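Blackboard transcription, Thursday session:
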Amino acid sequence: NAGVMQNPRHLVRRRGQEARLRCSPMKGHSHVYWYRQLPEEGLKFMVYLQKENIIDESGMPKERFSAEFPKEGPSILRIQQVVRGDSAAYFCASSPPSGRTYEQYFGPGTRLTVT
Amino acid sequence: KQEVTQIPAALSVPEGENLVLNCSFTDSAIYNLQWFRQDPGKGLTSLLLIQSSQREQTSGRLNASLDKSSGRSTLYIAASQPGDSATYLCAVNLGSGYSTLTFGKGTMLLVSP
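(Written on the board underneath:)
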């Protein structure tokens, strides 16, 4: 059973370009969470999605950032017109649709560098 | 607003020592608490999850305790090894299971041979 997969693992973008980060949850998981880890800071929640629904986006910046989790395919975190401050590690986590523990399982992350 | 604090920020010990990492949180109404390990440039590996109704969880040389009323958790590592060197993160889940995790900034552990 493969774990949470993220790609690309490393992404370099120039200022003003778009960044697309992909996350495939663990098999059977229908809940996806995105977190961002800025240099020297802890992980911060960004958005929580279920299939075709955004459940909680309270941690998402109001502009340039969007996320989706379509019926088919991976979850996508999209950053438009990237700026240097977007350079960070972006982690995706997934959890199963039912269960007692609601444990979140994390992917290896995508490290975004904006030049 | 929930805040999670981890002390110490960094810890260096010789191999073989037993050690304790501390985590405190401001809102005691948590659903569960997870301890993670993060190696440099890598993702997070879940070590232990404690439900709010539990007092402790054990896995191998690791033991995590939870005192919800005082807003504290500890991670005890027995007989530390160089391979334990990593950053240890504590995270709390406030909601009915499907809410988000609030993380501390972590304790960076270095175990020297």
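Lecturer's comment: The first strand of chain B starts at residue 4 and ends at 7.
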